User: Which sequence fits this backbone?
């Protein structure tokens, strides 16, 4: 079942001579994490703003839970959570006071302190947010997205500025949200996050979707069908490359596995960073 079904979506800002989003089609299925990827200015933010009803007067169709998005009122926001890249908080209020203020905007409430504890902010809940580091503000921003027990999360660069430990905590919470039946639209330049989280991804460039599939399928499609084997010899580390298509019947490969001091074996599967550059023609900045 599609939570969002987008068809022929187009949008042009006033005073602009080009479409920010141009005839975009995609679906986001219930219970999946969908990654919208692309270089800066490609149309990711505009698409998210349309899907969160921050931009109206678009062309095309956006269906949310079997209903045209434009027909929803304020009730639309009751079951979505939003975590944009630049956190907006009240610096003179504490972390807890900020969350209490934002939670009171919704009809549905969840306990705040357990969420703060999960992201490692419980001990700092009474500290003014103006004294928080960037990473602390990012974690608080993620808590804010969960305050109303949403069914759908819009997340933009959700782990940007976090150390590996705290980034993993956030990613684990996103996966737990998905496991409980939640759905996520993720935009990020961090391909490690895409690898860890996304079920499917779509690459957007110049306002148009130019490729979409699972990360695994894309890595196979754009990778080389080879196997590199590194092994030790008297002369040091040696590498041999074999064709993946018949490697199971390749006598030299099989003999190498039986007799050599194997150090590493790698397929020619490419990285998402390389795919990003190849598909978008843009330098990866993750």
Assistant:
């Amino acid at each position: 079942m599609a939570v969002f079904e987008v068809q022929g979506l187009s949008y042009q800002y006033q005073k602009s001579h080009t479409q920010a989003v141009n005839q975009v089609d995609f679906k986001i299925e219930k219970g999946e994490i969908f990654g919208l990827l692309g270089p800066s200015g490609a149309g990711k933010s505009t698409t998210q703003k349309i899907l969160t009803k921050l931009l109206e007067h678009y062309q095309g169709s956006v269906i949310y839970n079997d209903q045209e998005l434009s027909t929803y009122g304020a009730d639309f926001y009751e079951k979505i959570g939003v975590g944009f890249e630049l956190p907006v908080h009240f610096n003179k209020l504490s972390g807890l006071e900020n969350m209490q203020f934002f939670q009171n905007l919704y009809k549905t409430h969840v306990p705040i302190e357990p969420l703060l504890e999960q992201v490692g902010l419980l001990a700092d809940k009474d500290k003014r947010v103006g004294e928080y580091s960037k990473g602390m503000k990012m974690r608080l921003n993620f808590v804010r997205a969960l305050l109303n027990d949403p069914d759908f999360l819009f997340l933009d660069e959700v782990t940007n500025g976090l150390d590996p430990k705290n980034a993993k905590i956030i990613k684990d919470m996103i996966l737990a949200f998905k496991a409980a039946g939640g759905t996520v639209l993720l935009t990020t330049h961090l391909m490690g996050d895409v690898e860890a989280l996304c079920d499917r991804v779509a690459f957007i460039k110049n306002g148009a979707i130019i490729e979409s599939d699972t990360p695994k399928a894309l890595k196979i499609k754009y990778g080389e069908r080879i196997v590199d084997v590194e092994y030790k010899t008297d002369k040091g580390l040696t590498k041999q490359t074999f064709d993946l298509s018949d490697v199971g019947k390749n006598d030299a490969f099989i003999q190498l596995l039986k007799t050599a001091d194997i150090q590493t074996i790698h397929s020619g599967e490419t990285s998402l960073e390389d795919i990003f550059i190849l598909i978008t023609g843009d330098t990866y900045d993750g």
